Amino acid sequence: MKYILVVDDQAIIRQLLEISLRREDRQVLLAESGEQAVQLAQEQRFDLIIVDLMMPGGMDGFETIEYLQQNAAENLCPFMILTAKDQQPERDRAAGLGVYNYLVKPFKLDDLFVTVDNLLGAG
User: Fold this and answer.
1) Please, are residues 38 and 68 in contact by the beta-carbon 8 Å criterion?
2) Which residues are CB-neighbours of 64 under 8 A, at least 6 positions away?
3) Phi, psi of 8 (to 5 degrees)
4) Which side of the chain, N or C, has fewer Cβ within a 10 Å radius?
5) Where are the beta strands (DSSP E) in 9-87?
6) pLDDT tens-digit map of 52-90
7) Domain ranges of the chain
């Protein structure tokens, strides 16, 4: 079983990804904030974490990735950014964190499937 965590403050995006990515061999868990993602990552090991960059509250997407990389090293998994921000400074910051899988909203489901399959080793 592969476990995917989707972190996005927009309920419609969380629902779309849950429905689109769920399969017999995959379980998709949802978090609406960086803080909730951190809590879930303490309880469950994930094979992939998909993170939106712009989230209200205490932790944006970058802060969430940085925190999980620093504090969950034993459970480190690939990250994928799913965001509306398609600017070079964000892409550079993501690359600096080792996150090269960057999908811009609105996105094509086929692009999402290919990226997720590749990150989970099924592509």
Assistant:
1) yes
2) 7, 34, 37, 38, 51, 55
3) -155, 140
4) N
5) 26-31, 48-51, 79-83
6) 999 988 899 999 999 999 987 666 799 999 999 999 999
7) 2-119
Tokens representing 110?
């086929």
pLDDT at 56: 83
> pLDDT category, 22, cuts 50, 70, 90?
very high
The structure's pTM equals: 0.94
CA distance 97 to 66: 7
* Alpha carbon distance 59, 123 (integer Å): 31
Tell me: pLDDT of 119 over 90.
Answer: yes
Right CATH for 2-119 from 3.40.1160.10, 3.40.50.2300, 3.40.50.1000, 3.40.630.30: 3.40.50.2300
| Per-residue exposure over 82-109, b if at least 16 CB sit within 10 Å of its own CB, e if not | bbebeeeebbebbeeeebebbbeeeeee
Q: Please name the residue that has the structure tokens 């998909």.
A: 50
| Residue percentage of the chain with pLDDT more than 90 | 88
What is the rounded CA–CA span in Å between residue 3 and residue 56?
Answer: 25
